[in-house]
Amino acid sequence: MLVGRWLLDLAIAVYGLAVSVMFIEVVRPTPAAGRTAFVFLNGAFLLLTAGITVELIGAGSLAAFVAERTRLLYAWLLLAASLLLSAVVRADLFLLLTNAVGLAVVTLHLFPPGAPASGPSGREELLVLHIVGALVAYVLFVLAGVFSVLYLLLDGWLAAKRVRGRAFRMPPLEQLARYAGTAALVGVPVFAVSLFLGGVWAFGEAGFGALRDPKVGFSGAVLLAYGFFVYVRTFARWPWRRAMWVGAGAFFLLWLNFWTTHSLALAAWPG
């Protein structure tokens, strides 16, 4: 049924947001991130449950429904188990990995390779989610890069004692570093989810031939670059100036990706 399909598509979007926020909670635990992840996770569960219920009513036969939607039910059980576990014990990394698998399973069930590119059961919705996620992530990556470059400029001016006029209304170094790290931390999981959705779409369109598209390699490199920036800022505890050089390098790679491939997403709108 069309309503059930819309509910399941919306569940994927909310589920992706939940996984992204859970990544942030694992890397930089805060009460706000934990509460937000819990809200998104419950929202995804409710939407998935509603979508499955609507499709079950329309199927008519329970046996046929279960046989045709095994992966969807598996993802629903994973999500339900993770919610039950989160109420008993705090295991953020386990929950992140479990729900990342659940997101992958439900996405591959709803958008299998070989499905028609349009129509109520097609992959247009998947492409929309991919492009929107990529746009949001690139905005965050640009902010992280700009803050990194501003940090390096201000640090250089301070070292040369030429800061009076040029640093007018610029935030302090510590604030610039924090802004850069936070923007990258949020952007990395959003971009990772977006790339996964785009990869499923591209594989359905061109199979393994999609790997020949330079956008795939450049997008993967951008994700690795900003992921490394998050690592050196959060886990390796590099000196701020050294870490900001990594952020500036990732920013350069981001623009190289854009000007080389002329696109922010893995795929353009078909037709």
UniProtKB/TrEMBL annotation:
GO molecular function: heme binding
Keyword tags: Membrane, Transmembrane, Transmembrane helix
Keyword NADP tagged: no
Biological processes per GO annotation: cytochrome complex assembly
Residues of the Cytochrome c assembly protein domain: 72-262
Pfam families: Cytochrom_C_asm
TM segment ranges: 6-27, 39-66, 72-89, 94-111, 131-158, 179-204, 216-232, 244-269
InterPro entries according to UniProt: Cyt_c_assembly, YpjD/HemX
PANTHER family per record: INNER MEMBRANE PROTEIN YPJD (PTHR38034)
Descriptive protein name: HemX protein, negative effector of steady-state concentration of glutamyl-tRNA reductase
Organism: Hydrogenibacillus schlegelii
Upper lineage: Bacteria, Bacillati, Bacillota, Bacilli, Bacillales
